[in-house]
């Protein structure tokens, strides 16, 4: 992590205390969002999301595999995230860092717990063959708030995913070469990330805001207002009021974010 | 010459459609995006910067390090993340291909990192990576003698053709990727795999060099487009 | 025979001219041709061709003034990040002389300082010092970073650009040759100045920039365009010379005076942030030069740490 100059810390805290930010946004305002889907023709589902200067690409690849013993009739989701060294001068090549694993798990949790992917429709033969969806996140430019950008990207990519039709013929799986079906999705979800600066909760933090923040809170909310994932990060604590404020805001902001999908 | 028409409708000396854009990332010191055929490649450059890997540094000049990486979703069957033997080799020869053009005497003991991400692969990613990396290096303000450019020629159905697609690469008899500095015509990367007669090889290298010159024009256009006054 | 004109955009490897021309900075000669080694703009003087880069990392040179950030405190020196591939060191000796003191009581990690490059060794490590008034630790304000190659443009001919910004925003601005700029004033003006500096960076190569910036400043602060155009003196400005950095000495003396006055005024004068722009307009009209704003408690340089 880069050392943040003391005067930068003070200036950002002062701004936020006066309800202002370096880029002129309100404390509850997102940066511009743009989403493109089907950006990778070799992936069954894909999306590229820009959130301000932050850019992520996600690709979804299916593979046939065995179900987990306790859920023999459900498909499997696996989310993996590469914080590429291209995205940030402090990211190192090599196996995923703790930050990268946390990011992938928080993004995964929202999708999983909202049960928006109908996993039972990914079962080809109970107990034997199910579709496993590999969701690979590629972080290419880090200008802050990777969480929300990643969740939007995964959501958009899932919605664009088409899987080949697989059937059982003479106890063998036959994968159709031209027949596909849309991945069944029954809901929409967004993640809203806040950081605490001074006494205030700030949504969609930039990199410099992240670097001076005392704590972070991710709130995953579905379109119909159900809270299905949360994570508190950062070195310092949050108050109950901070959390309730963020949850309330997240429910409103999720509706805005989902419009981009 | 041959009037053969290839599977994808190209003539023997025709490149796949190609598009290059310079300066596409915020954080990197320099960056470029390239599409050729079905390839999509993103390159970021950081540096010259301080490096703590002492053994890599040189007292009289800056050094370059490349990392070629394929996204798990860039190929038909998902690729496991992380480096493998193929990507390590390509990373090495890419650095070797770019190094002769760099003028880093003013940056002793510094490091330039070039990160090549293959977002989608469709044959010829190493040449495409070199071509995009050069544009990103220029975009980063790195002093260079020339803009290195890569292109391949090969042998498909007994014909020498330019810029093999993935299908041609699989079905073909030989692939000769090269990289060169167009101003002097010096070659900075050469590989060849497959069967070629001496005559065919000579033909392939001529064709690949011709291809490089065409791609070089696109590199120049991309940089001019990014930075010229409207 | 020459193939380019002054100010043309060129790229590495591009042939600029034949043998009768001289190869200046940003170019090299090979096989009797002058070629560019950089992405940049041609600067042609007599028969000498140079290429001024659009982007380039800062490499320390003796005598430069830079803005640096303390990244480590060691036994007898500070490690300083000077926005460069090469780090700087500030020896305790440069600060204390022969006296022995605890280093981190004076400057700690994260402090931002205005420094002079005293010496650069053969591996480009920069030895830094604080000799000269105005050198030392910044208190308050913000840091803006720009490409070091754009520093001369930000300063403008004889300081025309930077002085205009200072006059209009009432911000104090210190420019380091390493591309870091310190700005301090009213909170809103600091942010406006950041925007303006980035605009200058983005449009450094365009003509008529001084007027464009002037209009922008007046529109943002007064809500109307300035009464008259400034005379354009930009023709040669983009040539990279050693930037004529503002006369720090005078400026800092002035600042000290302001500081004293401000402290006297402090109790009665602490404007509401929302009304600050109005405040400025009013003060400008009344030609009251001594402005006071912001949080005065952290409003001074530490000078030479005496």
Describe the structure in your own words.
- The complex is a heterotrimer of chains A (about 260), B (about 230) and C (about 300).
- Helix content of chain A is about 25%, strand content about 35%.
- Chain A is α+β, with helices and mostly antiparallel strands.
- In chain A, helix 2 crosses helix 3.
- Chain A is elongated, with a radius of gyration of 20 Å.
- Chain A has a single domain, classed as GHMP Kinase, N-terminal domain (Ribosomal Protein S5, domain 2), CATH 3.30.230.
- In chain B, helix 1 links the parallel strand 4 and strand 5.
- In chain B, helix 1 packs across helix 2 and helix 2 runs parallel beside helix 4.
- Chain B is globular.
- Chain B starts with 17 loop residues before the first strand and ends with a helix.
- Chain C contains 8 helices and 16 strands.
- Chain C folds into 3 domains: about 45 residues, OB fold (Dihydrolipoamide Acetyltransferase, E2P), CATH 2.40.50.100; about 70 residues, OB fold (Dihydrolipoamide Acetyltransferase, E2P) (Beta Barrel), CATH 2.40.50; about 170 residues, Ribosomal Protein S8, Chain: A, domain 1.
- Chain C starts with 8 loop residues before the first strand and ends in a 21-residue tail after the last helix.
- Chain C is an alpha+beta fold and about 300 residues long.
Question: What's this, in brief?
Answer:
Chain A is α+β, with helices and mostly antiparallel strands. Chain A has 5 helices and 12 strands. The longest helix of chain A is centred in the C-terminal third of the chain and has 19 residues, at 240-258.
């Amino acid at each position: 992590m880069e050392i943040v100059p003391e005067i930068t810390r003070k200036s950002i805290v002062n701004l936020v205390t006066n309800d202002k930010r370096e880029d002129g946004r309100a404390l509850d305002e997102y940066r511009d969002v743009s989403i493109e889907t089907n950006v990778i023709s070799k992936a069954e589902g894909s999306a590229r999301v820009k959130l301000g200067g932050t850019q992520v690409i996600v690709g979804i690849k299916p593979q046939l595999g065995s179900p987990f013993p306790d859920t023999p009739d459900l498909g499997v989701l696996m989310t993996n995230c590469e914080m590429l060294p291209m995205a940030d001068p402090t990211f190192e090549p090599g196996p995923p860092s703790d930050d990268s694993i946390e990011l992938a798990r928080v993004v995964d949790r929202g999708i999983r717990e909202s049960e928006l992917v109908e996993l039972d429709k990914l079962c080809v033969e109970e107990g034997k063959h199910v579709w496993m969806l590999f969701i690979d996140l590629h972080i290419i430019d880090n200008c802050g708030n990777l969480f929300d950008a990643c969740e939007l990207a995964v959501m958009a990519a899932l919605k664009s995913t088409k899987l080949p039709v697989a059937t059982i013929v003479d106890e063998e799986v036959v994968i159709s070469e031209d027949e596909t079906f849309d991945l069944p999705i029954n809901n929409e979800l967004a993640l809203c990330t806040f950081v605490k600066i001074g006494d205030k909760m700030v949504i969609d933090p930039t990199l410099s805001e992240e670097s001076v923040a005392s704590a972070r809170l991710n709130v995953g909310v579905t379109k119909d207002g159900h809270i299905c994932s949360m994570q508190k990060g950062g070195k310092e604590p949050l108050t109950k009021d901070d959390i309730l404020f963020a949850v309330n805001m997240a429910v409103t902001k999720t509706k805005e974010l989902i419009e981009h999908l | 010459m041959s009037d053969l028409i290839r599977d994808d409708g190209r003539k023997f000396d025709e490149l796949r459609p190609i598009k290059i854009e310079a300066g596409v990332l915020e954080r990197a010191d320099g960056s470029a995006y390239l599409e050729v055929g079905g390839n999509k490649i993103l390159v970021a450059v950081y540096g010259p910067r301080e490096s703590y890997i002492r053994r890599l540094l040189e007292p009289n000049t800056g050094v370059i390090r490349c990392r070629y990486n394929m996204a798990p979703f860039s190929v038909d069957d998902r690729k496991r993340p992380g480096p493998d033997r193929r990507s390590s080799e390509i990373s090495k020869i890419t650095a070797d291909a770019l190094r002769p053009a760099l003028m880093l005497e003013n940056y002793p003991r510094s490091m330039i990192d070039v990160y090549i991400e293959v977002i989608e692969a469709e044959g010829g990613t190493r040449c495409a990576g070199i071509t995009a990396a050069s544009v990103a290096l220029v975009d980063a303000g790195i002093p260079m003698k020339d803009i290195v450019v890569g292109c391949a020629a090969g042998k498909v159905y007994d014909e020498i053709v330019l810029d093999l697609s993935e299908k041609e690469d699989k079905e073909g008899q030989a692939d000769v990727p090269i990289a060169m500095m167009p101003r002097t015509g010096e070659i900075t990367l050469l590989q060849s795999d497959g069967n070629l007669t001496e005559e065919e090889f000579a033909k392939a290298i001529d064709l690949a060099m011709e291809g490089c010159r065409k791609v070089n024009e696109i590199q120049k256009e991309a940089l001019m487009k990014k930075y010229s006054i409207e | 025979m020459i193939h380019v004109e002054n100010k043309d955009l060129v790229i590495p490897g591009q042939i600029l001219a034949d043998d009768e021309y001289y190869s200046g900075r940003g170019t090299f000669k090979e096989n009797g041709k002058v070629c560019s080694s950089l992405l940049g703009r041609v600067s042609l003087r007599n028969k000498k061709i140079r290429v001024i880069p659009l982007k380039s990392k800062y490499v320390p040179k003796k005598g430069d003034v830079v803005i640096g950030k303390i990244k480590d405190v060691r036994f007898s020196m500070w490690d300083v990040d000077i926005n460069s591939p090469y780090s700087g060191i500030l020896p305790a000796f440069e600060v204390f002389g022969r006296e022995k003191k605890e280093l981190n009581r004076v400057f700690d990690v994260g402090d931002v300082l205005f420094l002079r490059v005293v010496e650069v060794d053969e591996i480009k490590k920069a030895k830094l010092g604080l000799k000269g008034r105005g050198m030392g630790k910044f208190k308050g304000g913000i840091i803006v970073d720009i490409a070091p190659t754009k520093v001369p443009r930000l300063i403008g001919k004889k300081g025309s650009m930077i002085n205009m910004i200072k006059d209009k925003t009432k911000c104090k601005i210190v420019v380091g040759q390493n591309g870091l700029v310190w700005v301090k004033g009213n909170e809103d003006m600091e942010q406006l100045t950041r925007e303006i500096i980035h605009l200058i960076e983005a449009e450094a190569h365009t003509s008529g920039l001084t007027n464009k910036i002037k209009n922008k400043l007046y529109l943002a602060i007064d809500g109307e365009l300035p009464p008259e155009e400034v005379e354009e003196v930009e023709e040669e400005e983009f040539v990279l010379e050693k930037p004529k950095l503002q006369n720090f000495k005078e400026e800092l003396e002035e600042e000290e005076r302001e500081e004293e006055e401000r402290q006297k005024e402090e109790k009665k004068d602490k404007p509401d942030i929302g009304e600050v722009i109005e405040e400025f307009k009013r003060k400008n009209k009344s030609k009251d030069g001594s402005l006071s704003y912001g949080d005065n408690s952290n409003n001074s340089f530490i000078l030479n740490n005496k």
